[in-house]
Amino acid sequence: MSGTLVLVRHGQSEWNLKNLFTGWRDPALTEKGIAEARTGAAALKDHGLTFDIAFTSVLTRAQHTLDLILEDIGQTGLETIRDEALNERDYGDLSGLNKDDAREKWGEEQVHIWRRSYDVPPPGGESLKDTGARVWPYYMTEILPRVLSGKTVLVAAHGNSLRALVMVLDRMGRDEITSLNLATGVPMVYRLNADSTVAEKTVLGDMSAAH
Fold it and tell me: Which sequence ranges are marked TM in the entry (predicted)?
């Protein structure tokens, strides 16, 4: 029995707009972010998808994105599980800083390493590898079993927590995943085989809009 997993990165947040490191801080969606979530919902509706359960992080921007999607596809009240395992990568001491200011303080090269390396965390924060270390077990124990039982599961989360999942699903290497950007509000639909490998992947939107 093959199930379906849909991943959606939250819409633009106020701190995305201001070019700030966000991490576990909790800004709201912008008007553009709300529109992106609704565009993603329309794409899901056009694709004929309805869901059995949803997962999201404990952060407002992901929860709001999920709420907007469920409202627009007519599934308000869907069982939803919120867990900090799906939170954005923790940027530690960089959280709340403007990215240009961070480059002035630590240098372009160092900030680039923190943002784009696989396993070098910023001070007090997490690397992508660290983020994966909490996302992957949660996926294996909570999300994957439901998909393999034939359910259609929606996950609304963040750029880095979803990159950790995409790395596993798409069998990407360290270099590939560090250069991957996920567009905000664009659903990625995975149909899984019984052995948890990907039978089919469909992106319902323009991934070139990633930033």
Answer: none
